[in-house]
Backbone:
């Protein structure tokens, strides 16, 4: 039977009640975590090599010492490698944590420290005390008053009001990558100060997202993370430093109680769904905040270090495929189960619509770090019935050089297309040998994905993301400026494929600013008109800058926050993005239902695509070419628009020949010309001005899109009969 130790503090927290006599019973191994039952709570935790487990119960969330310590007797409270106990007389709101004793033998992968307070790997809520100390968790000795703890949560009391995941198709998806806090933390957000940077504050900004045309938000990590995992004097802002895979980050809640973070996150999901916007979570199942052998003991290391992490050949050290000090052992049975249980939880209990997996290729590595042909972790996710229909997006590489873009395991995964980002940047920058790659990227990257006969939206097309320059900085800086990060410029990418348009940083030169505006729009057109699923970075629609910092993970300040004054300062850019997204979604709605079932290859075969240079039918694929044109004639009856695109990354104007139009049609109409001032830079299809003549002069470093509205079926048949077959780009 479990042994009770009375360790009630001499001074109770105001309003707290001392626990009455507790008579724990054996409890059950399943489910893992803290589960509420009639009359009490069942606790279960995995630890294969522990010799002793203690359950610590606190009178309230703010308590610094446990009021009861339940010492689990392995004869009663251990089954196989699971330690379990049922504690009567407690329920929702109960604060708790663990301590684990066992061998401290790093050479064999064991790092037990009985002085450290440990989180429950399956805990649904985490409390971080004001006195929390990462240093105390890293040094010898106890850390009771400076440790995080969990709180028992009742998930059944929340009223979802009929809410459910939206199940929107990828073909009708426009993703907005955003940081929960950074979206509203700036004083210009108009949010009350006490609510800025919270889940609740995002709800107030949903009309902005709807007006922009966003159909899915991709939230940077919202799992509870350690803000102290960063250089001294700074804060871990991005959140890629998890301590829990089940608890929403409490720092994003406007409420100070543990349940508040859970319910406020669910309020956000419900409100976004009502607005027709899906919720995709950026999830980090590749490492934790415990980092390397010098790091803190917070949870996993203190319970089952040898199971949760991939260890090096010298098992006292950690394999570092994540670039952050440690690597989760994703294909260990215990870790695999935890990952799937976590995903199920966020879908079933939190109603999220999908996940973007940070450094997803790590999930393909075995316990020795070697890539697997059929990694169990990925197939468990792929085939889980609860996750069926959930959006799964892979960042198909890791920090150790594994690059699986186009070859990622599974049938339902979409992939962040880093090649799209890099090739579009190179072309717009004016690099050599970029025209053939431009053609591949705008067609959905068939050179990468075409062999798999998958849907056209497998490619997640982006030019910028949280990691790297913002779009404004991409056209304003030639090199990174990360001095504020305190790492002497060692952090962040050096090869940004950026171009400052002739002057580093902010400029008051009119010509430079006009060129930057044009380049910004060129990137947006390429991303939002290409085949695939587009992803826009928070604030790019209004010119947000990080002052050249391309690794702002530790900048929880105005460097990273969205300055809402930019909406009024850059209304032309905001309008350009809004209209561009609107036209994209309108074209999707105009497609036949059966076209959604086409693979990328089938779509390209059914469309008629002709490539041109400045002369019709004569594309210049040479290394020194900087221009390309194409005519796209969809074969779907409900697609009456033909599109003619002209890309000029050259530093001089070019005269492009235009395809002839049937005599029954008035001629090509201009949709986009990024060189023109607003509102002529992009217009509505129904009001596009006619383009006279057989040529169009495309300004240096600009993009032009023309369209032809086919009003006669006979004319359409005649035009199609004259069209050449589709030719592969390059």
Residues:
């Amino acid at each position: 039977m479990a042994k009770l130790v009375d360790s009630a503090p001499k001074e109770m927290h105001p309003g707290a009640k001392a626990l009455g006599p507790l008579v724990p019973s054996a409890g059950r191994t399943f489910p893992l975590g803290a589960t509420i039952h009639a009359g009490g709570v069942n606790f279960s935790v995995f630890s294969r090599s522990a010799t002793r487990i203690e359950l610590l119960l606190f009178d309230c969330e703010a308590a610094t010492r446990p009021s009861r310590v339940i010492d689990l007797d392995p004869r009663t409270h251990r089954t196989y490698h699971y330690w379990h106990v049922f504690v009567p007389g407690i329920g929702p709101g109960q604060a708790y944590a663990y301590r684990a004793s066992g061998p401290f033998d790093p050479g064999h992968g064991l790092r037990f420290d009985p002085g450290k307070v440990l989180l429950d790997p399956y805990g649904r809520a985490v409390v971080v005390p004001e006195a929390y100390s990462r240093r105390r968790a890293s040094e010898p000795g106890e850390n009771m008053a400076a440790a995080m703890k969990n709180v028992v949560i009742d998930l059944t009391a929340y009223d979802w009001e009929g809410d459910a995941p939206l199940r929107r198709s990828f073909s009708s998806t426009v993703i907005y990558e955003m940081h929960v806090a950074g979206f509203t933390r700036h004083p210009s957000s108009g949010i009350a100060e006490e609510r800025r940077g919270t889940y609740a504050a995002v709800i107030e900004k949903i009309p902005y997202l709807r007006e922009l045309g966003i159909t899915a938000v991709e939230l940077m990590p919202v799992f509870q993370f350690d803000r102290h995992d960063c250089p001294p004097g700074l804060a871990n802002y991005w959140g890629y430093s998890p301590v829990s895979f089940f608890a929403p980050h409490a720092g994003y809640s406007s409420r100070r109680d543990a349940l508040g973070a859970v319910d406020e996150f669910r309020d956000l999901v419900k409100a976004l769904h009502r607005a027709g916007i899906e919720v995709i979570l950026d999830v980090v199942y590749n490492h934790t905040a415990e980092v390397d052998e010098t790091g803190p003991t917070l949870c996993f290391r203190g319970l089952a270090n040898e199971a949760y992490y991939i260890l090096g050949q010298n098992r006292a050290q950690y394999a570092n495929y994540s670039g952050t000090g440690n690597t989760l052992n994703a294909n260990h049975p215990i870790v695999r189960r935890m990952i799937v249980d976590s995903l199920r939880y966020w879908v079933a209990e939190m109603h999220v619509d999908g996940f973007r997996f940070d450094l997803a290729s790590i999930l393909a590595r075995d316990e020795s770090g070697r890539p697997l042909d059929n990694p169990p972790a990925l197939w468990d996710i792929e085939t889980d019935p609860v996750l069926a229909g959930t959006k799964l997006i892979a960042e198909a590489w890791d920090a150790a050089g594994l690059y699986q873009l186009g070859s990622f395991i599974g049938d339902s995964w979409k992939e962040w297309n880093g090649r799209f980002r890099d090739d579009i940047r190179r072309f717009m920058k004016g690099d050599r040998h970029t025209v053939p790659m431009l053609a591949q990227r705008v067609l959905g990257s068939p050179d990468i994905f075409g062999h798999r006969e998958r849907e056209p939206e497998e490619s997640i097309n982006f030019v910028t993301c949280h990691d790297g320059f913002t779009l404004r900085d991409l056209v304003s800086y030639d090199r990174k400026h990360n001095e504020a990060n305190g790492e002497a410029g060692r952090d962040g990418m050096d090869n940004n494929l950026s171009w400052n348009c002739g002057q580093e940083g902010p400029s008051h030169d009119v010509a430079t600013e006009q060129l930057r505006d044009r380049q910004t729009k060129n990137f947006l057109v390429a991303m939002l008109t290409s085949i695939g699923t587009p992803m826009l970075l928070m604030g790019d629609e209004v010119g947000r800058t990080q002052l050249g910092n391309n690794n702002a993970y530790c900048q929880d300040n105005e460097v990273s926050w969205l300055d809402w004054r930019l909406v009024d300062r850059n209304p032309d850019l905001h309008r350009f993005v809004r209209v561009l997204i609107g036209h994209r979604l309108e074209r999707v709605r105009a497609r036949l239902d059966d076209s959604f079932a086409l693979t990328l290859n089938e779509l390209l075969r059914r469309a008629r695509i002709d490539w041109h240079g400045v002369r019709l039918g004569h594309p210049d694929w040479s290394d020194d070419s900087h221009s390309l044109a194409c005519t796209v004639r969809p074969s779907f009856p409900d697609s009456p628009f033909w599109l003619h695109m002209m890309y000029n990354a050259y530093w001089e104007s070019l005269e492009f020949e235009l395809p002839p139009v049937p005599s029954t049609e008035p001629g090509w109409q201009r949709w986009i010309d990024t060189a023109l001032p607003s509102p002529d830079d992009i217009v509505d299809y129904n009001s596009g001005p006619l383009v006279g003549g057989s040529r169009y002069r495309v300004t240096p470093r600009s993009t032009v899109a023309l369209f032809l509205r086919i009003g006669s079926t006979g004319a359409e048949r005649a035009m199609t009969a004259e069209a050449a077959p589709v030719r592969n780009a390059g």
